[in-house]
Design a protein that fits this description.
The protein has 265 residues and is mainly alpha-helical. It has a domain of 164 residues. 75% of the residues lie in helices and 0% in strands. The chain is built from nine helices and no strands. Helix 1 runs antiparallel to helix 2.
């Protein structure tokens, strides 16, 4: 929504007030509508193919004496075209972390068939809400067998072909999608940078702790060295004292021998 508002402001500043008004009026789409918009932006051929199959099915119902096998083949082609759109939309939902289970599949299939039946003024590329399929529900049940022809298709012979958005609106919508993509990419970069910063901070704290531990161990070794130096000094002093005492004892022994020798003489 922030990207939408920014785009509207930019268009208004450039003087294109009509486009700015249209962009500003865009509602936040439901997840299913957003996914179908992405299919329009990235794989419009899937939508064109589904439109062609829907038109083919109407023509067959409008014709007299249609071979049932042709009708069956048209229904099968319609079903495959719808499934291709649903599968593509589900992939887009998965890229943004949205659930892509059976409920979401049914919503997407219902919106596609409702759009093909002309039950909405919105078309892929500018959809904001889910669409009820009405009589097309039988065709959109994912994983079911091919159903019989629904009455709603036969009553839709004169239904007008749904056109894709006009070029000016298409350009504004594409720019909005690009801005949203850029915003998501920026947020992802911020998330990665935040994670990287947190990792580096943890590594720094571990390194600092290791340095503190190494400094403590070094200080302990220094203290031990000082103790050993003091012990060595004490031992050296004791050795010197012992040598002096030994020399004194030797001198006394020599003196005693000389005295003894004098008495003998």
């Amino acid at each position: 929504m922030a990207a939408r508002n920014a785009l509207a402001d930019r268009l208004r500043k450039t003087g294109d007030r009509d486009a700015a008004t249209r962009v500003k009026a865009l509602k936040r789409p439901t997840p299913s509508a957003w996914a179908l918009n992405q299919v329009y932006f990235h794989a419009p051929e899937l939508l064109q193919g589904a439109l062609a199959q829907a038109q083919r099915l109407r023509e067959l119902h409008a014709a007299d004496g249609v071979d049932p096998s042709q009708l069956t083949a048209a229904l099968e082609a319609q079903r495959h075209a719808t499934h291709a759109i649903v599968d593509a939309a589900l992939e887009h939902l998965q890229t943004i972390g949205q659930q892509a289970g059976p409920v979401q599949q049914r919503r997407l299939a219902s919106s596609v068939q409702g759009w093909l039946a002309g039950r909405t003024d919105e078309a892929p590329g500018r959809m904001t809400q889910d669409v009820e399929a009405g009589g097309f529900d039988a065709l959109t049940s994912v994983g079911t067998a091919l159903p019989r022809v629904p009455v709603a298709i036969a009553s839709a012979r004169a239904a007008p072909r749904i056109e894709l958005p006009d070029p000016r609106h298409e350009e504004a919508t594409r720019e909005l999608a690009a801005a949203e993509h850029a915003a998501r990419s920026a947020m992802e970069r911020v998330r990665r940078s935040t994670d990287e910063q947190a990792l580096r901070q943890r590594e720094l704290e571990r390194a600092q702790a290791a340095v503190r531990a190494a400094e403590a161990a070094l200080q302990e070794q220094r203290n031990r060295l000082q103790e050993r130096l003091r012990a060595a000094d004490a031992a050296q002093a004791e050795l010197a004292t012992a040598k002096a005492d030994s020399e004194k004892a030797d001198a006394r022994v020599a003196q005693a021998r000389r005295t003894l020798d004098a008495y003998k003489a």
